[in-house]
Amino acid sequence: MTGQDAVRIAEDFHSRVSLTGLILTKMDGDARGGAALSIRWVSGVPIKFIGIGEKIDAFEPFYPDRLASRILG
Questions:
Q1: d(Cα 22, Cα 7) in Å, to the nearest integer?
Q2: Burial 42-70 (b: 16+ CB within 10 A, else e)
Q3: Helical residues (DSSP H) of 1-73, grouped into ranges
């Protein structure tokens, strides 16, 4: 899924069920920070958790400063 696909899906989903928070998954595989910022901006809904692995215990709270660091290198 591309960043634009993620944004489109988030918009559609939010319009139907009124989201209160987002979970961004697969953060361990590649840099998805741009999609996260776009989805946050378009939906107006905060990112609450990120997934950093394949198991249920691989979720952690979302810290915006860490994502900014990841994007900027």
A1: 12
A2: ebebebeebbeeeeeeebeebeeeebeee
A3: 3-17, 33-43, 64-72
**Cα–Cα distance measured from residue 35 to residue 27, given in angstroms and rounded to the nearest whole number:** 11
pLDDT tens sequence across 8-35: 888 888 889 888 888 887 766 555 566 7
pTM of the shown model: 0.68
Distance of alpha carbon 4 from alpha carbon 7, whole angstroms: 5
User: 1 exposed, middle or buried (CB, 10 Å; 0-12, 13-18, 19+)?
Assistant: exposed
Other C-beta atoms lying within 10 Å of the C-beta of residue 37: 17
- Pair of tokens at residue 39: 């989805």
